[in-house]
Write a structure and sequence with these properties.
Layout lengths: L2 H4 L6 E5 L2 E9 L7 E2 L3 E8 L2 E2 L5 E4 L7 E2 H4 L6 E2 L5 E6 L7 E11 L8 E11 L3
Antiparallel strand pairs: 1-2, 2-9, 3-8, 4-5, 4-10, 6-7, 6-9, 10-11
């Protein structure tokens, strides 16, 4: 139902630190019709070219990058909300980011809500072309 919103097309960008690319960001929207506290984000999964990204390398921000949380930290964050109208940023800490060339990137976001007994998710895969620098 919300799969088309899970991975914002063209949102990929490198993460720079000390003049080196140390990861990449992609934008996402919530797979639900209302906002939730970050503690209700059940999981975020990223797959690049058929290989799952290690969950320890994923960071999440729902306030345009002002505050970042690991996936394990998200479960404890009740003071920040991810609103329906806002894009969140999923950051993958990975040497050289996506690297030049063509990549298939899948983003899956799972959330929990109080009156649904199991987590539910949205998923989208995009073909991404990163130009050589």
């Amino acid at each position: 139902m919300f799969d088309g919103y899970i991975y914002t097309e063209g949102s990929e960008k490198p993460v720079w630190e000390d003049d080196k690319i140390v990861g990449f960001d992609i934008a996402t929207r919530i797979p639900y019709y209302r906002g939730i506290p970050l503690s209700m984000v059940h999981d975020v999964e990223v797959v690049v070219d058929g290989k799952p990204v290690e969950r320890e390398t994923i960071r999440f921000s729902a306030d345009n990058g002002e505050h970042w949380f690991t996936l394990d930290e998200l479960w404890t964050v009740s003071s920040f909300r991810w609103e329906y109208a806002d894009e969140a940023i999923v950051r993958v800490m990975r040497p050289d980011g996506l690297g030049a060339g063509e990549h298939d990137v899948t983003l899956r976001v799972s959330i929990r809500v109080a009156y649904i007994p199991v987590p539910f998710s949205g998923e989208n895969t995009r073909k991404v072309v990163i130009p050589a620098s």
